[in-house]
TrEMBL record:
Superkingdom, natural source: Eukaryota
Keyword Cell inner membrane listed: no
Residue ranges of the region described as Disordered: 168-203
Keyword vocabulary terms for this entry: TPR repeat
Start and end residues of each DZIP3-like HEPN domain: 91-149
Sequence ranges of Basic and acidic residues compositional bias: 168-180
Name of the protein in question: DZIP3-like HEPN domain-containing protein
Length: 1057
């Protein structure tokens, strides 16, 4: 959370706090008026009578008056109570007006999530005046504000004291504990008193016995402390029912201040949550809400509310509550860990894993069926083999751990599972490391610990071994590390690192990582934005059996996103629906909704949906250019390589940090100096933290002629107050006529108001002062581009900027796209294509913080570009001899992620096999069993129908009898217990090939030579009754039973690999 956002949240909490104080003041007013009306003190037993008088009050207000003690009434309920009795007694008009203004202020705040400093001060002053009219003490209100303004700064939190349960009910925070494990008591009745300073007026007020009985120092406080100690003792003994009973007694004591009641409600919330029965979570949530109402600036109230919301599975609300807690106490590790856990849950929900059976652990029957399909072993043989494996060290503990984790043959027990995983992990098993890391990640069977989880996952992910398979724990650990960096779970969010880990898992054949990388390329997160690369990764994910990847691939086909065609077609519509049905078969219930959504759509409907999606994609991804946590490493690396754009970024960060340090020292000159330097470096990306606005405004009153102060003042008013912004430029530019920032703001204001003649006059004058200024060269080009009728001068201005700017300058792509617009307007198609392609190339040189690149007209330029390219390709094709459909361009081959994956895997298997044979280790064939569960019918050459790979189901173990599959070999074959190769069909789709029962010459060298000769790259073969086989490595391949199922032909692709 950035400091600006934190401060806006804190301002909201501070207003909630003074409103809570106002609620207490209203309760006091009610008691005084009740006594005047009834001539007796208010008692809670009078509630039923009062409810009868509140005829017009809403049900919630009536319920609160009837069932709760008066000090738990909110402002709405109290105002209804005051109104019900006030008509019968004389009242003070000023006081009555203040009552209703306070209620109005509370109602207005119900619609405010955050407040700027200016809004906060306005509301605080308004509410303070009302409280004084209701009899509150102005000095005490001022003291409260002083204390509240400290909250959220390093090491300063509002007092909120809580017990610790043995069962890890409340995670420890080092700065909250004293030596005996309890949090520092802070005298039970006071606010934090930083550095042991003297108590302020608010604390004195709370520690002094007063006439109205709010605090009885001699009796109530002693009883409070006695009962609290008793309740805490029950709590630590985990006797939560008794603890709740005693906490409830404390809440009945007279004269307890709201802050102290908030503490007890927090205690009781944890106790309710610890019971884990019936409505305990709802009771915990209610108590946490009471704690927040009584003390809105206590961070633990929000923390406990989040814990209750988690128990009720309201994860999105819990994330909001935890963000509020972090705003109030940024240094709390327990809150950040809880936020990581909630984000993990939200990620699961967002990915709809709960609706996708493919993400669920398979049952014992499903596992046995899977082993039978992939190995050909019977279930009896499989069980016997697994029983024998139980006696093998490390492997046996791994099996026992999974049995306990899944409840397979034993009662499910995560603690015992963790015990066995730990034993296996200590023996070096990467799968055990992954499983144990996952358990620490989820907090199952062992306390949730993101640090230990990272350590184990990194160890598993970096395990070096030959022939890494799905299920080994290595790709799974790499995937989970990608998820952690993607979602910010236990680590800082970093899409680049996430992409790197996903890529490693993809290289080992994990479909879920391929799908996530596809999403990254689609959105431009951590990688360059590319719909074509996204399509290729979704295609790879689908081929690896990933259900979500199948659904995303279907969307690509249905909407023609990243595909060969630029517009939806009937063929793509059918292909998209096919993949949705396959996704549904894999257990993805969301695919069913998409089938209903798309099945009756025509091409025009799909074109419209595609256009809407593209427009939304240009606006939905909101990248923080100055997010140092996300982009810092990459920027530093680029700066070291000599990038002046990256160095500018580093200088902006450095100066903003200097400004913040100056702010902590109350050095306003240092604040504006640092900020003004950053603004002058790049005013478009420099955002002034809102907590510094008041510093700038105050300094402006005393240093109105200081250029740094003026620069900061104008910059802060640029978006918030356009009139004040323009007036300030008018006032100060004559005083500083050569200042670059002021000149730039004047030119920009002219361009925005379409005063293009004035803009050009001003920018030309600026260029006289600064002839090499990139910002003025750029603004001159933009001013000319904005004219209704562009002239050749526009093109010259754009070229002037491009020749002067470094290639990674963030305005370079925009200038190329402006050139494309210029050429399109004069109908120069070749130059348009050249300029647009130059813009795309320039995007690739941008710093990652500027990606995905945003240009307002890019969507429409892309459409024009695609249409021109299609027309050009059609003209070229008509003038050439028709080529075979299997020929692919080099660009398409390079983009084909499945091709790279299959060839890399194939060649690695070749190397591993040779190494194993040379070391006499032996090896099994790359995937399929010698005795598969299905067998193709004997081959017959008559009445065969052609089939392609896309017409075969890649996730079903099935022979396609009566069909012939024509393919070509695209890489050198190798020999083990059969012949392995990679094939490609006429559509350019690829698959692995396994040929069995090839006649041997009795010599492996001769067999290998024969295989290389017969199955060299570009050899054409026709496979009769092709068998789509689910292999032991969890991936599909085409199995050929014997040479009799093949016809070997000649090469037809002229050397293309």
């Amino acid at each position: 959370m950035d400091i600006d956002h934190q401060e806006r949240l804190l301002n909201r909490f501070r207003i909630d706090q003074i409103l809570a104080r106002g609620g207490s003041q209203l309760q006091k007013v009610f008691k005084e008026r009740w006594k005047k009306w009834k001539d007796e003190e208010w008692k809670d037993s009078n509630a039923a009578e009062l409810v009868e008088l509140c005829e017009k009050a809403g049900p919630k207000a009536k319920e609160k008056i009837k069932n709760d003690k008066i000090d738990l009434w909110d402002i709405t309920a109290t105002c209804w109570a005051i109104q019900a009795i006030s008509s019968a007694i004389p009242t003070n008009k000023t006081e009555t007006k203040a009552i209703y203004e306070l209620r109005e202020a509370r109602n207005n705040m119900a619609h405010e999530a955050e407040l700027t400093n200016e809004e906060f001060n306005q509301k605080w002053n308004h509410i303070s005046n009302m409280l004084v009219k209701l009899g509150d003490n102005y000095a005490n209100i001022k003291a409260l504000k002083t204390e509240l303004l400290k909250i959220g700064k390093s090491g300063v939190v509002a007092s909120n004291v809580e017990p610790i349960a043995k069962s890890d009910i409340n995670k420890e925070s080092d700065n909250d504990r004293n030596d005996n494990g309890l949090e520092n008591d802070l005298s039970d009745f006071g606010l934090d008193n930083e550095n042991g300073a003297k108590e302020n007026e608010t604390q004195k007020e709370k520690l002094t016995c007063v006439e109205d009985g709010r605090c009885d120092k001699c009796d109530s406080k002693a009883e409070y402390n006695k009962l609290k100690d008793e309740a805490n003792k029950f709590f630590k003994e985990e006797n939560f029912d008794k603890a709740i009973e005693v906490y409830s007694k404390i809440l009945q004591l007279p004269g307890i201040l709201p802050e102290d009641k908030a503490v007890i409600f927090s205690y009781r919330s944890i106790a309710h949550l610890s019971l884990k029965n019936g409505d305990s979570a709802k009771m915990a949530q209610k108590d946490a809400e009471w704690a927040i109402q009584l003390w809105p600036c206590g961070w633990r109230g929000y923390y406990h509310l989040a814990r209750a919301q988690i128990a009720l599975e309201n994860y999105f609300e819990a994330e909001k509550s935890l963000n509020n807690a972090i705003a109030l106490n940024p240094s709390s590790k327990e809150v950040r860990d809880e936020l990581s856990a909630v984000r993990s849950k939200i990620g699961i929900l967002s990915r709809c894993e709960h609706l996708n059976s493919a993400y669920q652990f398979p049952s014992e029957k499903e596992q046995l069926d899977q082993i039978h399909t992939r190995t050909g072993m019977s279930k009896k043989q499989t069980k016997k083999l697994l029983n024998k494996a139980m006696d093998i060290p490390v492997f046996g503990d791994m099996i026992r751990g999974k049995n306990y984790m899944l409840g397979k043959g034993v009662e499910q027990d995560y603690t015992k599972a963790a015990y066995h995983f730990e034993k296996a992990a200590s023996g070096g098993d990467p799968d055990a490391m992954y499983c144990l890391g996952l358990m620490y990640h989820e907090g199952k069977g062992i306390p949730q610990d993101f640090t230990k989880s990272m350590e184990l996952l990194l160890k598993a992910a970096n395990t070096v071994t030959n022939n890494v398979l799905i299920g080994s724990g290595i790709p799974e650990a790499q995937h989970l590390l990608g998820m952690k960096y993607s979602e910010g779970i236990g680590v800082a969010k970093d899409y680049r690192k996430a992409a790197e880990w996903y890529e490693k898992a993809v290289n080992h054949g994990l479909g879920s990582s391929a799908n996530n990388l596809g999403i990254f390329y689609k959105n431009g997160q951590g990688v360059e934005k590319s719909s074509k690369k996204a399509f290729e990764y979704f295609k790879l994910a689908a081929s690896l059996g990933e259900a979500q990847g199948m659904q995303n691939l279907a969307h690509c086909y249905l909407l023609a996103e990243g595909t060969d065609l630029t517009k939806p077609s009937d063929e793509y519509h059918a292909e998209g629906l096919k993949w949705l049905k396959l996704s549904l078969e894999k257990g993805n219930m969301n695919a069913a909704n998409d089938i209903e959504r798309f099945k009756d759509k025509n091409k025009d409907d799909l074109k419209w949906i595609s256009l809407i999606n593209k427009v939304l994609s240009q606006t939905s991804t909101n990248t923080d250019v100055l997010d140092k946590e996300q982009h810092g490493t990459a920027i530093k690396e680029s700066a070291k390589k000599g990038s002046t754009t990256a160095q500018r970024h580093l200088n902006i960060w450095e100066n903003i940090e200097l400004a913040m340090e100056a702010f902590k020292k109350n050095d306003s000159a240092g604040v504006v100096s640092g900020l003004a330097t950053s603004i002058r470096l790049d005013h478009e990306i420099t955002e002034v933290p809102e907590i510094l606005f008041s510093v700038i405004d105050e300094r402006m009153k005393t240093h109105a002629d200081d250029l740094d102060t003026i620069t900061c003042f104008i910059h802060t008013k640029r978006k918030k107050n356009n009139l004040l912004y323009l007036n300030a430029i008018d006032e100060y530019l004559p005083k500083f006529p050569k200042d670059e920032y002021l000149l730039e703001q004047r030119i920009t204001s002219f361009i925005d108001s379409k005063s293009l003649k004035d803009a050009l006059i001003t920018v030309d004058k600026a260029l006289e002062f600064y002839p090499n200024s990139l910002r003025f060269l750029y603004l001159r080009a933009i001013a000319l581009c904005t004219q209704d009728k562009q002239q050749e001068e526009t093109l010259k201005a754009l070229n002037n900027f491009l020749s002067a700017a470094p290639t990674d300058h963030d305005k370079v792509p925009a200038c190329y796209y402006q050139k494309a617009i210029y050429y399109n307007n004069i109908n120069n198609i070749p130059k348009f294509i050249e300029a647009f392609e130059a813009g795309l190339a320039a995007e690739k040189k941008q710093l990652p913080c500027f990606l995905p690149y945003k240009f307002h007209d890019k969507i429409y330029l892309e459409k024009i570009f695609e249409n021109h390219k299609t027309e050009k390709a059609s003209k070229n094709d008509s003038s050439k001899i028709p080529s075979t459909s299997s020929e692919q361009t080099l660009e398409k081959i390079k983009l084909n992620r499945q091709r790279k994956f299959l060839i890399d895997k194939h060649r690695q298997n070749f190397i591993d096999i040779e190494e194993n044979l040379n070391s006499h280790k032996g090896t099994a064939f790359t995937g399929t069993s010698v005795k598969p569960p299905n067998t193709p019918k004997p081959p017959r050459l008559s009445s065969l129908k052609n089939i392609t790979l896309k017409e075969m189901n890649p996730i079903e173990d099935k022979p396609y009898d009566g069909y012939v599959l024509e393919v070509r070999i695209i890489d050198w074959a190798y020999v083990v217990s059969g012949i392995a190769g990679i094939i490609e069909d006429e559509n350019g789709d690829l698959q692995r090939l396994a040929i069995y029962n090839w006649p041997s010459k009795g010599n492996r060298m001769l067999d290998t030579a024969e295989a290389l000769k017969s199955f060299r790259p570009n050899s054409v073969i026709s496979i009769i009754n092709p068998y789509m086989r689910m292999s032991r490595d969890m991936q599909s391949m085409i199995r050929v039973e014997s040479p009799g199922y093949m016809l070997i032909g000649k090469s037809y692709c002229n050397g293309l690999l």
